[in-house]
Design brief:
cell membrane; 227 residues; single chain; membrane; 7 helices; mainly alpha
């Protein structure tokens, strides 16, 4: 007589549906975290790409040797379409012009422009770095949340064996498989978040260096005009 092979549906959906309520709650939490994470990943990608394009465009216009007053007027008149670097320039140039109208000395002119640009720089960096802490949190916490769901599921699987006279692999495998789904979902949420966080943090650091370099070079230009 041939042995009877018992087949059991081990699809992901079936495993999730047969998991305990706590394990399902953990999986739902991880899926929500993953959904928000992917939303922020795509939004941050578009924001950083736009910031790079606008920065490169303004640097070309600035170093083309045009009139600073004309650049400032353009930035003021098109404030809704300006990039981060252009807004930093606008803040510094505007404060420089105001201080010069008040008849301040050269040192005071440069200090006013420096403070204005530093404040604008910090505002722009806060915008660029928004949602990065969330990605970092998802990347670091999701595996542990998934592991918690896995541990709880394995505990339930072994607890169920207490009511079985003869424990076999077929009896314990579904419970363990259900538990491991939580870890898999945790890794699914964590890995993209970690990759995106590292990449975007590096891109933001590069933009910050470009902003700071521009500020120093622009202050040198203002220093020559303040004499």
């Amino acid at each position: 007589m041939n042995p009877v092979t018992v087949t059991q549906d081990m699809s992901i959906v079936t495993l999730v549906l047969h998991a305990s309520l706590l394990a399902q709650a953990v999986m739902a939490l991880l899926l929500v975290m993953s959904l928000f994470s992917w939303t922020y990943i795509f939004r941050k990608h578009l924001a950083l790409r736009s910031a790079r394009t606008q920065t490169e465009g303004f640097e070309r216009d600035f170093w083309a040797g045009g009139d600073l007053q004309a650049l400032y007027n353009s930035a003021v008149n098109n404030r809704h379409n300006t990039g981060a670097l252009e807004r930093i320039f606008e803040s510094g140039m505007g404060e420089f012009l105001k201080a010069r109208e008040r008849g301040n000395e050269a040192g005071a002119l440069l200090d006013a422009a420096r403070r204005a640009m530093r404040a604008a720089y910090q505002r722009e960096m806060d915008v660029l770095e928004s949602h990065l802490p969330f990605l970092a949190s998802v990347g670091s916490v999701s595996p542990y949340i998934g592991l918690f769901g896995t541990v709880w599921g394995i505990m339930n699987a072994f607890r169920g064996l207490s009511n079985v006279q003869q424990a076999t692999l077929a009896s314990v495998a579904p419970g363990i498989a259900e538990a491991l789904v939580a870890t898999a979902i945790g890794l699914f949420a964590a890995i993209p978040a970690v990759i995106a966080y590292n990449r975007y943090a590096t891109e933001i650091d590069r933009l910050a260096i470009r902003f700071e370099s521009f500020m120093e070079e622009f202050l040198n230009i203002l220093q020559r005009q303040a004499r």
